[in-house]
Design brief:
seven-stranded mixed sheet, seven-stranded antiparallel sheet, 17 helices, about 800 residues, alpha+beta
């Protein structure tokens, strides 16, 4: 076997070397031009998608694609200019694929494939004339396909090149290659590995990436989600020289406008009530997934980073490689990172980021993986109650990723095509809705790193197939509801929950959490339940192996517990911190630590620990073994440099003299109650408004169920009452202050046989958990509060009605 492997490896190397040399000679002879799609000068409606760089071209070169994500409407052309060195006729090849090919039926004929199973069709336009060759039809994998020819009349002639999307259904392009060779002669490799060297030669990339600066950073943070932003800002606040590297053009990760997941996790709790100050500076503070872009406050995170002169922010930069110290740390510890190598996702420029300390906040544990850190992915083979050393991984099954979506009402009737290549629904499999929330989750049975393109694409097939059924086959009242609606937003960046988990000196287990184990280095308060996701059985029945819906199981735990600091650094890469969902926990324990505000507080603690390391010229482990009191002192003080001024409590001043709360004598009923039955509607007028506990609230259904109904609570009295004021106490407990209040609510009166808004008795874009409204007096025996944000969970401790005396 060993001899056979060596022989095959040698043959492959010789074959590859021949292809590479042939290609290199072409480039050097200046009769060919290689163009990365992401380098197009005008992107038009095509989107730069870097999610699969590590798959598309392994190694430090990477590869990004352009994606025509038009949600069923062709996007505006991408444009660039290509200068061809010699006069003559050039064959033009495009590296692309038919992304639906993963799901091609076995008996698919060529005609049917082109007509019904080619969602992402596009073509190339040369000097204003479209090629007759349609792309996006062929290719079960990424491959070079002939796109057309172009002829130049003189040396050095510039050619205008455009990518013309024909469908709006996620056509994709990796690169273009112009050559005077014929199709039969062209020797471009299709596979990703050989293309690494080809790209380096074609793009004239240096053998070694240049330093972004000569002096080491004190801390290099990779990953710009909430954990990474908080780690970088906390360290900068404490005086460190910091680099923050993010592979998207915006900060926030799953909480950004690109993914749109709301922030969860209580902050400012024991054992250190000032841990969370930095996290709380970043909104949104209202709840709700898959909402309008402005809700997610990308600008707040950017502004916070920009206020620190000692924090260098590198957006749109994907870390593809690490450079390790040859002699370790000089004290017998072999694995120490010297630098990370980042590549700009549009320009392709590579940069070396040297540092003394590094923090992996990527979610996928990318830096740790590249550096050889110990890691796990998937479910443990044995019970979480076994010793950590016995917890080998049984399988790669993880929680999945969500591509959320919503539709919007338009001014006229809309259409949406039949999509045979997408998931096909029927009356039995469809659950009609107008938006897809967190539970539109896919890939629970697939690798969330190396199979991620498939996972994301399956989510797109689900959303498109569902909407096609709603527009073309839904009957009854749903036909009227969707008549004038169209996609308003569909995420193309998948919101992951779980992938690699880097291992630290402590691996946090379910047993530690349930039994409320006390750690001397407990640092980050965790309030989220042990929230694990599984494929929805109804979805599995109709879409086996390609599930895209999930349900959650919430395990019991103490109200909050403290995560030990020893989960926040690598046990075998000695200068590597981690924060976010890739910290040192088991699969089950991840269910409770993975939410974003909890990750943000991990980042704060990492920033503090990094400052202790710099002070003593030490490594992360020594903060625990030698300098824990110093970290404790920093956590007691916190790192926000100004007091929190975003109070969520705006209790009305008139409340002290308001008199009788008429809501206490009303009978109440609600459109829905939370599926757990723990939060009945009778809580909403029981007189208990303790915002530090969640037990006395009414909570509506959310997500898939609430999309099919309005959200309201009706108050009925035995005889008419007169009111002119209302108080709302809304949200969920999570530390020293509550969060996620209802942002849009309206008081309505039942009048002339229908519900009617009371003027001045409503609010939009609310950010307060306790607030009041006053309005002209009304006399009635029926009122209701109407929450006019369909699909989002409504949470109220109390609603109160008063008749204020003037």
């Amino acid at each position: 076997m060993r001899r056979h492997f060596s022989l095959m490896s040698s043959l492959f190397f010789v074959l590859f070397l021949g292809l590479f040399l042939s290609f290199s000679e072409n480039v050097q002879a200046k009769n060919a031009v290689f163009v990365e799609a992401e380098s197009f000068q005008e992107k038009g409606g095509w989107i730069v998608d870097q999610q699969f760089m590590d798959i598309m071209a392994p190694g430090e070169v990477g590869s990004v694609i352009l994606l025509a994500h038009g949600m069923g409407k062709p996007v505006e052309n991408a444009k660039t200019t290509v200068t061809l060195p010699k006069a003559g006729t050039y064959q033009v090849f495009v590296r692309t694929r038919n992304w639906a090919s993963t799901w091609w039926p076995t008996d698919l004929d060529e005609v049917t494939r082109e007509q019904d199973w080619s969602p992402g069709k596009f073509r190339v336009v040369f000097n204003g004339k479209a090629s007759e060759i349609t792309l996006g039809i062929e290719g079960k994998g990424w491959e070079w396909q002939l796109a057309g020819t172009v002829t130049t009349q003189k040396d050095g002639e510039a050619v205008a090149v455009e990518l013309e999307d024909l469908t709006g259904f996620d056509g994709r392009v990796d690169a273009l290659y112009f050559t005077t060779e014929t199709e039969a002669e062209c020797s471009l490799p299709d596979d990703a590995e050989p293309l690494v060297a080809v790209r380096r030669a074609a793009l004239n990339l240096p053998e070694k990436a240049p330093n972004v600066r000569e002096k080491d950073y004190d801390l290099v943070v990779v990953g710009g989600g909430l954990a990474g932003v908080c780690a970088a800002c906390a360290a900068a606040q404490l005086g460190l020289e910091v680099a923050l590297i993010q592979d998207r053009p915006v900060l926030g990760g799953n909480g950004s406008t690109e993914v749109r997941v709301h922030l969860n996790g209580g902050v400012n709790l024991p054992p250190y009530k000032n841990v969370g100050n930095m996290t709380y500076l970043m909104g949104p503070h209202g709840g709700g997934n898959a909402r309008e872009a402005a809700h997610y406050k990308d600008g707040e995170r950017l502004a916070l980073c920009q206020k620190y002169s000692n924090l260098d922010l590198y957006l749109s930069t994907h870390v593809m490689g690490v450079e390790m110290a040859e002699d370790g740390d000089g004290n017998g510890n072999p694995k120490v990172i010297k630098a990370v190598i980042g590549k700009h996702i549009e320009t392709g420029v590579e940069t070396r980021f040297p540092g003394k300390l590094f923090a992996d906040c990527t979610g996928d544990g990318c830096v740790g993986y590249l550096a050889g850190a110990d890691w796990r992915m998937g479910r443990e083979a044995k019970s979480d109650y076994d010793e950590p050393s016995a917890l080998d991984v049984a399988d790669k099954l993880t929680m999945g990723a969500s591509c959320q979506w919503y539709t919007i009402e338009t001014s006229g009737e809309t259409t949406f095509p039949e999509v045979p290549w997408a998931h096909q629904f029927c009356k039995e499999s469809i659950k009609p809705m107008l938006r897809g929330d967190w539970d539109w989750e896919t890939g629970l049975n697939y690798d969330q790193v190396w199979e991620m393109e498939r996972v994301r694409d399956n989510a797109l097939r689900a959303a498109y197939g569902h909407w096609s059924y709603m527009k073309n086959h839904a009957g009854g009242s749903w036909a009227e509801k969707v008549k004038n609606r169209e996609f308003g937003w569909l995420a193309f960046i998948a919101g992951k929950r779980e992938s690699r988990r880097l291992l630290g000196d402590v691996v946090l287990r379910e047993q530690d959490i349930v039994e409320d184990r006390q750690w001397e280095d407990g640092c980050v308060p965790c309030t989220w339940s042990i929230d694990l996701h599984y494929p929805d059985p109804h979805n599995s029945k109709y879409f086996p192996g390609n599930e895209f819906r999930s349900y959650c199981v919430n395990g019991k735990k103490p109200p909050h517990y403290a995560i030990p600091y020893r989960t926040l650094y690598s046990r075998n890469v000695n200068n590597l911190f981690m924060a976010g969902r890739n910290i040192s926990v088991t699969h089950i324990a991840l269910g409770t630590v993975r939410v974003m505000r909890t990750g943000g507080m991990m980042g704060e603690v990492v920033g503090m620990a990094a400052s202790v390391c710099r002070k003593h010229d030490s490594l992360p482990r020594s903060v625990y073994t030698d300098y824990l009191p110093e970290l404790v002192a920093l956590m007691e003080k916190g790192v926000a440099d100004f007091p929190i001024d975003k109070s969520v409590m705006n209790t009305p001043k008139w409340l002290a003299t308001a008199g009788i709360n008429h809501a206490r004598t009303a009978s109440v009923k609600a459109s829905s109650e939370h599926g757990s039955k723990l939060y009945p509607v009778t809580n909403i007028n029981d007189g208990v408004a303790d915002v530090l506990t969640n037990s006395s609230r009414w909570v509506s259904l959310g997500g898939q169920e609430s999309e099919r109904m309005e959200t309201w609570v009706e108050f009925t009295w035995d005889k008419p009452i007169t009111v002119n004021a209302a108080r709302f106490v809304t949200g969920q407990a999570g530390g020293a202050r509550p969060g996620t209040p209802v942002d849009n609510v309206q008081v309505q009166i039942f009048k002339n046989g229908c519900w009617t808004d009371i003027p001045k008795a409503g609010v939009k874009e609310n950010t307060f958990c306790d607030f009041g409204l006053t309005f002209d007096a009304v006399t009635t025996d029926r009122l209701r509060i109407f929450v006019n944000t369909p699909g989002y969970i409504a949470r109220f401790w109390e609603v109160e009605f008063y008749n204020l005396q003037k």
